[in-house]
Amino acid sequence: MSLLQHFKAVSNVDLYLIYPSSMVDCEFLMEDMNTLPAIEILSLRSITAGHAFGPCVFQLLRTSTGVRELHLDLDHHLKGEVSCSSGCICYKPSDWESMDICLNFLQKVEINNLSGAEYEICFVKRLLTWAPVLKMITVMFGPSVTVSEEVCQELLSFSRRCSPGICMEIYLHGNRAKVMYRAVNLKRPRDD
Fold first, then answer.
1. 88/23: higher pLDDT
2. Residue pLDDT, tens place only, 34-68
3. Which one of 81, 83, 94, 151 counts the least CB within 10 Å of its CB?
4. InterPro entries, alphabetically (predicted)?
């Protein structure tokens, strides 16, 4: 990460965030990053092993607020592992869910392989509030995930309230076919 700090601008950045299954003696190093270069497209592949990815992605976005596109691919890689405890270092900063950042240039987001966990839904909602000019967000749940229609409708409704002009697509896998929920928010004409 320190290498990136030597550049003023970078078109595409691909990062792998790999979480060890046990983070008991791990040190949180993300706070040491002050700024990243102007990044146009940020692609993150996160191997979470049951850990929360939101705080780390928040730290990355906080240090590079000029991102125009965000691609987030999640690999939970659980295979019988249990999610971490709330005291785990992966939750730092613990107040990220209530902190605001302004992603005034973020126009397109793609999130792949969501598990439907509450912290993931919270991350999507926070991202919608941080990006006032977001035009397109695509959320794809993993093939083995069962998500209720209520959760999909909640996300669609939240997107409509947060960003005027947003198009949100949610993909679920049901009976080996993709099911799509879609909401398009059109700006209302101003009354002159």
1. 88
2. 667 788 999 988 766 666 677 778 888 888 888 99
3. 94
4. FBL15-like
In a domain, 16, yes or no: no
Asked whether residue 55 is assigned to any structural domain, the reply reads yes
**Which has more confidence, 44 or 29?**
44
At 31 the pLDDT is: 56
**pLDDT tens-digit series, residues 86-133:** 666 555 556 666 678 899 999 999 999 888 888 888 889 989 999 999
Is residue 140 within 8 Å of residue 114, measured between CB atoms? yes
Q: What is the extent of the structural domain holding 105?
A: 35-76+86-184
For residues 146 and 152, is the Cβ–Cβ distance under 8 A?
Answer: no
- Asked whether residue 1 is assigned to any structural domain, the reply reads no
Q: How many domains does the chain have?
A: 1
On whether residue 10 sits in a domain, the answer given is no
Decide if 144 contacts 113 (C-beta within 8 A). no
